[in-house]
Amino acid sequence: MCQQDYKYQNPIFSMRKLIAANWKLFYTREQLTKIAHLRPTEQLEVVVAPPFPYIIEARRILPDFISVCAQNVCPYETGVFTGEVTSKMIKSINCDTVIIGHSERRTYFQETDVDIKNKLISCLNQNLRVILCVGEALNMRQLRFDALLEQLNVLEDGQSVIIAYEPVWCIGTGIIPRNDEIREIVVFIKDRCMKMGVECRVLYGGSVTSRNVGLLNEIEELDGYLIGGAATTDDLITIIEMCDRDKDGEYYR
Ligand code: PGA
């Protein structure tokens, strides 16, 4: 089977753009209902990540074509870990995707690459789709390729993942790298993954809004976005609509 065929058959490698909404601690029924009214599209995949207690409600209310995603997972599959939620539990509530390695988890909860590797393996064992976040802090800007290489080292031959490149200095700051800078990193990540035997799609995350997504859509190598702040407002619907049009502004559907 050629690489292209494989990509069409494996849901991780759908050729559609993926828009993932990371709601962090923000969640309202109103926002969920608005998303629930979206119409399916051949060109776009939508993923919504509510806080844990709202996953079941989100799965019940959202149409099937929208994936529901957890924002975190326990690195261990069982044991005495108060307050944790395992990949098996996440799978059992029809949640199909998990974000791991978000910079807020790395920074505020001191998550290490060892934790992230364990989370990754645990999720893949449960056939959960993983969005692995990587990205350099501001003080590593000059050494960003080294920082990324280290973070990508959690991956192993044969794995399939979605990688979100999120420069830490762009998250929630309104700052965004130039298109050529993002393109360079996306190509670097894809190349590195190919060498490691890892199948990947690459998203960009960090201050994505309806004001800059039109420009970002010009990066052909990019497979979609992980969106924080803008995903908690009606801007998410605008972004989805903007990504669902071709270059001439026509809707794909
Ligand atoms: P932001 O967050 O869109 O608010 O910058 C992105 C993220 O944290 O994933």
Describe the main β-sheet briefly: 8 strands, parallel, barrel
Indicate the structural class: alpha/beta
Which geometry do the CA atoms define? globular
Helix content: 25-40%
Q: Can you give the mean pLDDT?
A: 92
Order of neighbouring strands in the sheet with most strands? 1-2-3-4-5-6-7-8
| Intertermini distance | 29 Å
Structure annotation, total helices:
10
Q: What sequence of helices (H) and strands (E) makes up the elements? A: HEHEHEHEHHEHEHEHEH
Q: Can you describe this structure in just a few lines?
A:
The chain is α/β, with parallel strands linked by helices and 253 residues long. Helix content is 34%, strand content 17%.
Describe it for me?
With 253 residues, the protein is α/β, with parallel strands linked by helices. It has helices spanning 3-9, 29-36, 55-61, 87-92, 103-108, 113-125, 144-152, 179-196, 213-216, 235-243; strands spanning 17-22, 44-49, 66-70, 97-100, 129-134, 160-165, 199-205, 224-227. β1, α2 (29-36) and β2 form a beta-alpha-beta unit. α7 packs parallel to α8 (179-196). The longest helix has 18 residues, at 179-196. The relative contact order is 0.15. Mean pLDDT is 92; it is low at 1-9. Bound molecules: 2-phosphoglycolic acid (PGA). 2-phosphoglycolic acid is lined by residues 22, 166, 171-172, 205-208, 226-230.
Compile the SSE list and pairings.
Layout: H1 3-9, E1 17-22, H2 29-36, E2 44-49, H3 55-61, E3 66-70, H4 87-92, E4 97-100, H5 103-108, H6 113-125, E5 129-134, H7 144-152, E6 160-165, H8 179-196, E7 199-205, H9 213-216, E8 224-227, H10 235-243
Parallel strand pairs: 1-2, 1-8, 2-3, 3-4, 4-5, 5-6, 6-7, 7-8
2-phosphoglycolic acid binds next to β8.
